Amino acid sequence: MPWNLDSDRPIFIQILERIRVDIVSGRYQPGDKLPSVRELAAEAAVNPNTMQRAFAELERTGLVYSKRTSGRFITEDKDMIETLRAEIAESKIQLFLAGMQQLGYEKGQIMALMQRIMDSQPDPET
């Protein structure tokens, strides 16, 4: 998946968000080894120092840990990952609701519109 980084926000924050989403969505599983700083920096077309800064923050929060000479790995704490997943989802919903309210929609209208759209979507399990 391409790294769609923009200049409106700090790059290392966008990298953090991307890796967190990759973890909570299952792209990286608990215990998986992350690609090296240099590999991911080349893939994202960013300076390795920027990627290193993002990795350091991921380590600080406990989502990623280092093994000397072996690299960095995703935490095996599934509860931590699920908590982060819920936090990201809630944040996205809050942004969506704020945008809908800015358009003049009220709660009932938002729910009705969401239900109509969800009902028209194919079931992802089929």
Task: Give a quick set of tags describing it.
mainly alpha, 5 helices
Can I get a quick summary?
Helix content is 60%, strand content 6%. The protein has 126 residues and is mainly α.
Total number of strands:
2
- Tell me the overall shape: elongated
Please report the distance between the alpha carbons of the first and last residues: 24 Å
Which strands sit side by side, in order, in the main sheet?
Answer: 1-2
Supply Rg: 18 Å
The structural class is mainly alpha
Order of helices and strands: HHHEEHH
Q: Please give the count of helices.
A: 5
Proportion of residues in extended strands: 5-15%
The overall average pLDDT, rounded, is: 93
| Amount of helix | 55-70%
Q: State the major sheet.
A: 2 strands, antiparallel
**Low-pLDDT stretches:** none
